Amino acid sequence: MLHKVKEQIGSFLPALRSKNYRLFFVGQGISLVGSWMRMIAEQWLVYPILTTNKSLLGLIGAVGMLPMLFFVLFAGVLVDRVNKRNVFLLFQFIYTAIALALFFLIATHQIQLWHIFVAALISGTIMAFESPTRMTFVMDLVEKKDLPSALALNQAMFNSARAVGPALAGFTIAAIGIAPAYLANGLSFFAVIASIYMMRFPKVEQSAIPHLPILKGLKEGFQFIKNHKIYLALLGIVGIMTFFSWPIATLLPVFAHDVYKTGEVGFGLLQSAFGIGAVVAGLSFHWLFSKVQRKYLLIYIGMAVTVLMFSMFAWAPWFWMALATQMFGGWAISTTYATANTLIITTIPQEFRGRIMSIYMFVFMGGMPFGALLSSGLVSLYGPRLTVFLCAIATFVAGLTLILSMREKLQSKIMTMA
Fold first, then answer.
1. What is the pLDDT of residues 166-220, one digit of tens each?
2. pTM greater than 0.85
């Protein structure tokens, strides 16, 4: 009976057939829950415990994001040269040390605001190197044909942790304080560390990738994209979706508090609705990806549904309707990202993986702060409903322009691979 269950799970989620990926999935999932607990605890620690200045919340977020934008492109060049398993393991130990140091400072009542800023700066710098390393490391855990499943499961893992972590943090902070949330974050990294030590890899010769100067290696990465414009089109889609959809995520508290008058509970439900849609997308993506021969259709459909759902969300008169549009919107955005990500990471040559994925992360992560700035400017002028609607329309216009201008590239052989 158990064997049949495993076979059914393996046919629907084939990445889980790999023991190495199963270990990564469990370890990383636990770690992500701990990371979300830390993020919620950090916000509560900064405001209202350490300061009454609300703007510092955004400033700390910016401090944590800026190193990502500055270093992630150069990180990709280094990722192509190193043993990704060992480097990824090293980063987990550094994350652990940061979390446990903050736990000690909070527990002994020595914590100060500058400690949080320094930790955010160090963590952001590490993340700039860890993100492309993790994305390319996953490629070594599964067979190439199972990569769509692995990449989609990664998204489902992230969104599941996004739903569970904040709730656990809230209960933990209310019951026993902020320090235990940081302790949980620090201990959660040991799940990843243990999973990496338990993995087994066949002995293979190190691929001979020339150690070019960093700037020259980075230039080669951009030249590769210039010569293969399909990747430019896919990165453009990721940039459009991030830049114009992120403002909607940042305005959910405004909708919950000002529009629907549902308070913290409503805010949590809106977040959860989006997360549920994203998790469904992650769990079903491999099946969908394998059934659709013309992969570009998934991008077209995902972008179209995103525009429709967020246009409806902008003017939804009832809270239940807002929840429904967020759920379908979460599915659409995640499906679009998963399709673009899968097509990029499964078709680029091995020697360019780190560099191209670092450019992907730069586009993906870079769109978030600029999108947040866009929403903060528009909402003060036009209010939340019109701001969301304008973002939806901008997604439609920018997406349609890119699709029409690069239609031949998007419908190329890469986009119809089996």
1. 778 888 888 898 999 999 999 999 999 999 999 988 765 444 455 667 778 788 8
2. no
Q: What would the two tokens of residue 300 be?
A: 């077209």
Taking CA atoms, 69 is separated from 39, 56, 72, 80, in Å, by 20, 20, 6, 19
What's the chain's average pLDDT?
Answer: 84
